[in-house]
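The authors assume throughout that readers already know how a fold can be written as discrete tokens. Each protein is reduced to its one-letter sequence and a matching series of backbone shape codes. I therefore recommend that a typical entry be quoted early in the introduction. For illustration, here is how one protein appears when written out as sequence plus structure tokens:
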Amino acid sequence: MPEARARTPQQRAARELARTPTANPYRGALSDPFSSPVADPARTERGTTGTGSTPAGSGGLSADRQPAYRPATGTPGSATLAGILGIALGLTLGLFGLLLLTIVSLQNDYGAPDRSFYRGTDSGYVVLGLVDFGLAMCCGIGGIVLMTGRVSGRIAITAGGWATLLLSGFWLLDADVNPAVPIVLAVAAATMLFFSYQQPVTYWLGVLPSPQPE
């Protein structure tokens, strides 16, 4: 019987290896806020007893292993507001461009027979109307694309917003324009840019990597 119970060195090494606890492969690794957290039995036990607390250096993880900086699922409110402002601004600028082209067309049809003196003004209105159409496409389409979670939408409304601010300043210097119109457009463009560059929108679009624990 003693001889039957004798083990070879390989069997003893295999037994010791089987009794050795496996190391946690996730220990010391940076946490991914977009992946499901790995359950920690010790932390779960402390959380159920009500005596556990978030240790220092845990990277902002709460007792239920959820990152404090994890963005909410779905479209952030700032992105939705920026998109709505972009669509509204695009519709307004498109209406302005249509009115300018309509004025030029009506003047050519029902104005004075000889309009050679006004050709420069008519061409300026046409160019300004086309610029308004371009800005309307940037703001309107950019707002829609931004709400779908694409960076190209924010790029489009950034270009349209800054151009609208510059044109609003140009229109504000014109004595023939009501000051309330460019001021309202400038405020709408600035608000759109402000909401589109909020931190939740930046993380949601994936422009910057999510913060990692130290």
In short: Confidence is low (pLDDT under 50) at residues 44-72. Helices lie at 2-5, 9-19, 41-49, 77-110, 119-147, 151-172, 180-196, 199-205. The radius of gyration is 32 Å. DSSP finds eight helices and no strands in the chain.
